Structures are given as structure tokens and as C-alpha cells.
Amino acid sequence: MTAAVTRNPIPAIVIDRIACTGHGVCAAVLPDQVSLDEWGYPVVGGGRPDPELLTAAVRLCPARALLAGRTAP
In terms of Cα–Cα distance, which of 54, 55, 52 is closest to 44? Predict the structure, then answer.
């Protein structure tokens, strides 16, 4: 019998650049991880987002362009 290894995935900020219309909600909710370029579009920086804040940002994105992805632990 093989034991299953369960790991908590680390959420990653994923932006659908085609869908994004530059509302800036993601940068307002996640200011430590997302900044805006000179046209108002998001630029994802370093750092791991708080999962609850990322979930809120995904829910609040009016263009549905922000997603919570997964990265390796």
C-alpha cells in the first residue's frame, strides 16, 4: 500500500492578459504582489499572496481575468 502525500498547494496569481481590462482591483486587494504598469494593467511581483486575499481578488475582478493558480511547494 502506498501512502498518499498531501501537500497544500501554494496559490499563485495568474492573469489572463486577453481578458484583463485594467480595472486595478487586483492591485488594490494585493498591493504587495501586484502593481500596475503605466497603462493600468497588472504586473505580478514577488511574494506569495495570502490565500484569502487572493480568493477575494479573484472574486472581485470585474473582467474575470484574475485566477488562483498552483505552483510547486
Answer: 54
Asked whether 45 and 34 are in contact (CB, 8 A), the reply is yes
Tens of pLDDT along the chain (73 residues) come to 555 555 666 678 999 999 999 999 999 999 999 999 999 999 999 788 999 999 999 999 999 999 998 764 5
CB 73 within 8 A of CB 9: yes
> 66, 53 in Cβ contact below 8 A?
no
Report phi then psi at 63, rounded to 5: -95, 0
53 contacts 62 by C-beta, under 8 angstroms: no
